[in-house]
Input
Amino acid sequence: MAKIKVGVAGYGTIGQRLADGVAMQGDMELVGVADMMPTLSIQALNENGMIGANGVKYNLYLVEGADKAAFDKKRIPVAGTFEELVGKVDVMLDSAPAGVGAKNKEIYKKMGVKAIFQGGEKNSVADVFFHGYANYEKGVGQSYLKLTSCNTTGLIRSVDCLDRAFGIERVAITIIRRVADPGDYHRGLTNALQIDKAPSHQAVDLMTIMPHVDATGILVHTPVTHGHIITVVAKGKKKVTKEMALAEFQKHPRIRVVSIDEGFKGNASLFKYARDLGNRRGDMYEIGLWEDSIVETGDEIMYAINIPQESVTIPETIDAIRAATEMQTTREEGTAETNKYLGIGKFK
Amino acid sequence: MAKIKVGVAGYGTIGQRLADGVAMQGDMELVGVADMMPTLSIQALNENGMIGANGVKYNLYLVEGADKAAFDKKRIPVAGTFEELVGKVDVMLDSAPAGVGAKNKEIYKKMGVKAIFQGGEKNSVADVFFHGYANYEKGVGQSYLKLTSCNTTGLIRSVDCLDRAFGIERVAITIIRRVADPGDYHRGLTNALQIDKAPSHQAVDLMTIMPHVDATGILVHTPVTHGHIITVVAKGKKKVTKEMALAEFQKHPRIRVVSIDEGFKGNASLFKYARDLGNRRGDMYEIGLWEDSIVETGDEIMYAINIPQESVTIPETIDAIRAATEMQTTREEGTAETNKYLGIGKFK
Amino acid sequence: MAKIKVGVAGYGTIGQRLADGVAMQGDMELVGVADMMPTLSIQALNENGMIGANGVKYNLYLVEGADKAAFDKKRIPVAGTFEELVGKVDVMLDSAPAGVGAKNKEIYKKMGVKAIFQGGEKNSVADVFFHGYANYEKGVGQSYLKLTSCNTTGLIRSVDCLDRAFGIERVAITIIRRVADPGDYHRGLTNALQIDKAPSHQAVDLMTIMPHVDATGILVHTPVTHGHIITVVAKGKKKVTKEMALAEFQKHPRIRVVSIDEGFKGNASLFKYARDLGNRRGDMYEIGLWEDSIVETGDEIMYAINIPQESVTIPETIDAIRAATEMQTTREEGTAETNKYLGIGKFK
Amino acid sequence: MAKIKVGVAGYGTIGQRLADGVAMQGDMELVGVADMMPTLSIQALNENGMIGANGVKYNLYLVEGADKAAFDKKRIPVAGTFEELVGKVDVMLDSAPAGVGAKNKEIYKKMGVKAIFQGGEKNSVADVFFHGYANYEKGVGQSYLKLTSCNTTGLIRSVDCLDRAFGIERVAITIIRRVADPGDYHRGLTNALQIDKAPSHQAVDLMTIMPHVDATGILVHTPVTHGHIITVVAKGKKKVTKEMALAEFQKHPRIRVVSIDEGFKGNASLFKYARDLGNRRGDMYEIGLWEDSIVETGDEIMYAINIPQESVTIPETIDAIRAATEMQTTREEGTAETNKYLGIGKFK
Output
């Protein structure tokens, strides 16, 4: 079977990780990436000799309005235009800045190419609001999918995990949000906790993906860079004990159960661990779930998870390629292939 | 009626605010404060000429082991020893470092003086674990009371407020804890969210004070200094709507209902506001409660509060003096007197 | 002698402190302040009952484009328009957002009112770039003065102090800049040190005020809120020893010599100390200078100072009123009056 | 020629990077690493299958007092005792906690094994205080060497670079120190700049390594994790212009000249760049030096460098192995071999 050809629009924090993720799939081909400026990320690719015009993985295409001279000055080879890239692929992964995806969609439609958008775009850009584990089948054969955002993706992994085992009726979440990524200078916060109006969009989005669950939540921004922490208060159709929940979490390939006693003291421990594992960029695809955080109260269960914001949506986005192109038509098969190629679940 | 004579042991973050609070009470007399080193706080008092040996408010007494020569070198007048201070008062407020209070208690017992301990001591140091609004009557006439910690004090204000109006059965809390006070260098956290083993002690303490409520919670430390934020998910005996809850919160003298739209974007806004009010040290006795954070889900209500950690326990500690010495024997009378002298609730 | 009448344009971080500072001068009258929105700072004034239409200190005037309805909704009394305020004063202190001052100047010129601008405006807005200690006489009788920025103001205090005693030929400075004020959410930085292109404008500005000194410098932004720290490497005309420098610093009313041994461990200690002194908002007019930071190398002397960014320019701005209106015509007299009314130097 | 056999004592932040660095040297053999607890770093090695008892690179030895049961519980294979490791090697790299190295030295002496200590130990532990570029020849054939600390190592690279070209007489440095590493929870700082007594030990250490240079400096701790920034004010024997300095810096293999215009806005940009390069753990061996920071004043030159604190001492430590064991006897040959195997300078 021919490999599915994939392009990536926008080589930012998410885009570069999508490109790496696609390149790891044995049944996909990364045709190229598109951007408009020779950012640090692109300079790093170039220093590594990983950009080329003929067969090297990360062929670089320029979007309209890009400053070609700036690339030439740094001797970064350019393979063509954004439209040329779109013309060569089966699916585009669109991780352009929020709002640009909607414009790009016109090009995708014109050229008959499927596309998968990230969480920053409006839901209306897509036919399906998608999560690899929670509603894979809804994405099968569709042309335009939109992924949930990083917090929602990780949150749904855990809620869907309990829901499939026990049935979940209601969740109330508190999102302790990291406010910037490492290397950001334009959106920091200094010595303040900032609160958003409730309910948080993540709770609303969860209800869109899992309409049988009632959800609400409060989000607080915090001045850190290494992962969001979410606390979840969940009510099951029947009483869910700590042991029951833990057993399910431990089976899920994209959930890494950790504990404070082992040394996982907070979000920075998971980043450190991923660095020590030798993962590229210190990334981790799994969410962390603290065993020592799981507590019961009445008929509810409460727990805390860690969301590696830079990389958590990569697996579900790869799932979306599989669903949209019908490479696999069931949740079990689709996610299993993604996991295999990304090396997810090896530690289980 | 003669004024109740009060001494303060330990002139640290809490002790200096207790001293100020007592000095503001028209029916109490601040006899003196005790410490062992000429800290910055004591140097500031001295620069202001507020320490004296005869009649000036902040007479300074030295605990055993204090370095008297260090005080002399800075020309800070010393009025006597810790035991001498205890001999002159009706009640000691003990805000010594955790663990020292238990030792001090031996002196208080020997000299027949009542004492009120802060949250850092073990519960066993006291006859009653006390909260001015939730169990005032339990403290009436008692000799040794222990206050709840800063987070628990503020949390209980809000839960007790709803409980008295509607009956509360269960709460699940997420504490987003500020990790250090302004001016601390010894207990910071840098670019990390640190999680504690669940359930948090604040949830456990709430159940001690309010035994008819089932509570659990998760605590996450964050690298900020201007106030904890707690989210509360509460289940009432009957359905509590946003409007019902808001009406009760707005009536409570020690709860300040604020909103993001007014400009209260987070914990640092409340600190800024207190500075702009001209409050001494930029302190605030009230907890903040965001109107825009109140949301409903099923039969539960969720909301977020801000805890000004340096000053929030001062009113309830003053309440404890009133209860222990039977100045007022009911919750309504005791808290009303405290509020009057501290200027709490004027803005209502 | 009639009091000099002063108005303040822009009741932000600097403007509110200028208003307080003017109100403390026995020979000045604060006529009013102007702003365009009911910010938290104005809400706090109003909660305190400090805004009125007849004789209360902080009469409030609205600039063009202000949303009067928003003030009415919060029952904040408004005394009139910006032009009406300008019409009642001898001098305007302009602390409007950067760039707005240049527009306001047209009004000041039209109405024949003197004005003093803050550091955010371009130098061309003023006749004189002013510093109370370094070039007071240049401002005498002038109509439009511009103050140096917070870092430059504090830096020049220390360099001018050495220069008058020993003669300074050259300085190389490193500015470790706090990136936001307490209560800011729009300009933070998270877990990063950000560097600006050299030389820093503060070094350039110093040369404008003190043209006989050669200066350069590097500025690094840091994620903190309680004061900049500047290290200064200065070369005297003759060798300046630590003892010589210290003796001069200790005599300067606006320099507070502190030490790590006393407990001043960093910028947050100075903020804490000002809070403990009971200073309004926890402000401090003096720069801190660490005795334990003064070191010699060859014919140079090196030391570190702390800049309380919110309040450091207030005294020099008051000096500017005195110079512009010829209340005092010499540096010694002008700064002495300012210091007297602000309570500066009492601790010496 | 037989490979030099190397062991590493202490598999912490530095130790794990030393082990990786040695493993990359074609003419060295990493015999094993020693530690006492199954830390996260060791758990990560084990999850990767990189610990073994027969031939796998990271054979693990336990120091006295280690909890073997804890390793067994996690099924981490143990190859033997610390003494057994020492018995198999030519050189030990000692990165044990500060103070432990002095004790370990007794074992090294007893067993006749050379050792290289990190900066945390006292100078007296070693025969030579060593820097690969500044005094390589002093380490040739010696038994006990101590490396400079991370800041001093990077600082000396830049000063030695200018000194060899132009002669440097004096430096005054300001160290803007990151206070913790990513993943640290025990030594953070929150919203404060903390100053140390001057002169900083780094300036003193520089004079020990480069006795012909007069040096002083001030160190300020900042709440960040991704690299120290140092500003250097240097006086040459003759006037050194920006162009002259830049040309030398650009030739140095362990200095990476960067600019703000390229996107290197601060210390976090260099960490991000290393992650994007795919470097293990996001590490970088080179110091960064901002071209846009180089400025002149009088006969001095000023510039700013970035110190990647976790990895910067690795190359100079490898140099020390080469010097101590006389693999290469000149600075040029020794550093060139280290650079070759670590991939340093490829980008030049």
Chain A has a mean pLDDT of 95.
